[in-house]
Amino acid sequence: MFDSDGLAERNLVEGRSCGACNVCCVALTIKDPELQKAQGYRCGHARRDNSCAIYATRPQTCRTFHCGWRLLKWLREPLRPDRSGVLVRISGGKPEPGEAPRLGVVFTLLNKAALKADGLAESVAAAVAAGMPVFLGIPGPPGYTSAQGQINAFLEHAVCTKDKAAVLRILRELRAAGSSGPRTRIGVLS
Ligand code: SF4
Ligand code: SF4
After folding, report:
1. Domain-embedded: residue 122
2. Contact (CB, 8 A) for 127 and 88
3. Pocket test for ligand 2, best of 25, 41, 51 (most atoms within 8 A of CB)
């Protein structure tokens, strides 16, 4: 669990806390001097109740990371990662030639059930409608990279016509297509 301390707290959504969630203690690749682990492996410092055994001295990545659910008010409330299976992260969008970099969001579907998460379609649609670069992430096996791709173009018509069923169908198809994509083993110590 990556509950906040220090300056980062100022930017967090009021009323949302990590609680018993520790999705990022599993889903992140951490390459800090004190801790290296590849995504998909539960951190060895996570206790059975999901609290952190080294909370006071946890690495910098753990001190500074917050998922999108903690940072973005427009993400629907039910999308807390441990409850929804959806991990949202902020990413730098790839700018068009001559454009400034734009903020993007990555919706990583941690499991198949994530497609049924309450608020997923609405949150993805809100990001597309706002013109943000939106990416879909599909984790590989533990220790391997995720598949990730930008999905705005696939969703624009469904979002324009407010067709929630179509948004979910397209997400389902994209997840299925990306699930068998190539993965690379993560060398955390490199
Ligand atoms: S994934 Fe988000 S809500 Fe869950 S522990 Fe990490 S920062 Fe907190
Ligand atoms: S050190 Fe603590 S906060 Fe960081 S990943 Fe491990 S259990 Fe989570």
Report:
1. yes
2. no
3. 25
